[in-house]
């Protein structure tokens, strides 16, 4: 079985051939059709997150050690079942998106159905082998979500970028749908959040991005307004928004996002571009605002998202397909911000490439 392996942090992925996989116990075997490329993959290949001030958060401290197979936005065909697999044999041959944020099943977060916040995670493409491979073992069939007629390349992106967007939107106030929402960053995540917000009934969605093309895409996707953070006037954004979701997450976007909040607003930070800020404390309670972190989403949220997409309520995010063999090139392009929507690596042997 061929895969693309990270053999050392900071190095390119290497094509390797390994023995065939056979599912045991409750495991199921998936033949990978598509695997989306994410900023997190770029950070893992590099080996750390930038904490600012020359400080780093090493991937080794998150339980990641090469050699490892990256890729956590996975869709594929069910091809074999372990003897105790909790899925019937007539499902073999169907295409599923895989929930990658697999927990230990025992810690307090897993018990609360928030496996994505597990204290001892087994996330696909992070602590367990991911989707840059021909086939992948999944520990339990409950992590498979049937995509029906959906494009497997698009469905793959729901496992991280879509789910992360929905997870962030679900952290906004219950009344947020009819109040102004600002999305910072109009790349793959921002577009996905815009589409999901529209599908959920958000009426006033503004997208801020320094890139004119991304602002134009946002308008075409139904954004109410767009902002260029480098040239907009204070009266265009200061105190104008009940909710802000920051898909970039650096000191400049943090400052912009907090200024944009009105009294009582919520600022949700998702992006991991990195850096550090110094925060005056009295305004947090005087305004009073909420600063909330958000990390991917739950299995239940992925099921909700796939149902929304299968019911035709969700506008598709822009997808660009590349063959799996181009994994390093794809990671370079995501690192450089050279992607209009979402990059997806596809297996040449699958029909996914031609759709
Ligand atoms: Zn991701
Ligand atoms: Zn756990």
UniProtKB/TrEMBL annotation:
Gene3D superfamilies tied to this protein: Medium-chain alcohol dehydrogenases, catalytic domain, NAD(P)-binding Rossmann-like Domain
Required cofactor(s): Zn(2+)
Matching InterPro entries: ADH-like_C, ADH-like_N, ADH_Zn_CS, ER, GroES-like_sf, NAD(P)-bd_dom_sf
Top-rank lineage group of the source organism: Bacteria
Family: Belongs to the zinc-containing alcohol dehydrogenase family.
Alphabetized UniProt keyword annotations: Metal-binding, Oxidoreductase, Zinc
Protein name: alcohol dehydrogenase
Higher taxonomy: Bacteria, Pseudomonadati, Pseudomonadota, Alphaproteobacteria, Hyphomicrobiales
PANTHER family according to UniProt: ALCOHOL DEHYDROGENASE 1-RELATED (PTHR42940), VACUOLAR PROTEIN SORTING-ASSOCIATED PROTEIN 11 (PTHR42940:SF8)
Enoyl reductase (ER) domain ranges (all copies): 10-345
EC number assigned by the record: 1.1.1.1
Matches recorded under PROSITE patterns: ADH_ZINC
């Amino acid at each position: 079985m061929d895969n693309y392996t990270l053999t050392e942090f900071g190095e390119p992925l290497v094509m390797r051939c390994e023995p065939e996989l056979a599912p045991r116990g409750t495991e199921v075997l998936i033949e990978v059709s598509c695997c989306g490329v994410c900023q997190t993959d770029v950070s893992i290949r590099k080996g750390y997150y930038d904490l600012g001030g020359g400080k780093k958060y090493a991937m080794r401290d998150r339980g990641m050690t090469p050699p490892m197979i990256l890729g956590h936005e996975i869709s594929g065909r069910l091809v074999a079942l372990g003897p105790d697999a909790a899925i019937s044999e007539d499902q073999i041959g169907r295409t599923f998106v895989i929930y990658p944020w697999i927990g230990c099943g025992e810690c307090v977060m897993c018990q609360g159905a928030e496996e994505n916040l597990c204290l001892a995670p087994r996330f696909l493409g992070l602590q367990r082998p991911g989707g840059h491979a021909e086939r992948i073992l999944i520990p339990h069939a409950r992590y498979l979500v049937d995509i029906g007629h959906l494009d497997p390349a698009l469905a793959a992106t729901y496992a991280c970028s879509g789910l992360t967007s929905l997870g962030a939107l679900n952290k906004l106030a219950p009344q947020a749908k009819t109040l102004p929402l600002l999305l910072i960053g109009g790349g793959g995540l921002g577009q996905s959040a815009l589409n999901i917000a529209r599908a959920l009934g958000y009426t006033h969605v503004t997208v801020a991005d320094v890139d004119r093309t991304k602002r134009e895409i946002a308008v075409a996707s139904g954004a109410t307004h767009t902002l260029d953070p480098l040239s907009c006037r204070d009266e265009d954004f200061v105190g104008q928004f009940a909710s802000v979701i920051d898909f970039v997450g650096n000191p400049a976007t943090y400052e912009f996002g907090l200024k944009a909040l009105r009294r009582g607003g919520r600022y949700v930070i998702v992006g991991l571009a990195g850096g550090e800020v110094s925060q005056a404390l009295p305004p947090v309670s005087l305004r009073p605002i909420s600063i909330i972190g958000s990390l991917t989403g739950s299995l239940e949220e992925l099921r909700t998202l796939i149902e929304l997409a299968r019911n035709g309520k969700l506008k598709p995010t822009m997808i660009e397909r590349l063959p799996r063999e181009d994994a390093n090139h794809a990671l370079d392009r995501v690192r450089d911000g050279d992607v209009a929507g979402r990059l997806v690596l596809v297996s040449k042997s699958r029909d996914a490439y031609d759709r």
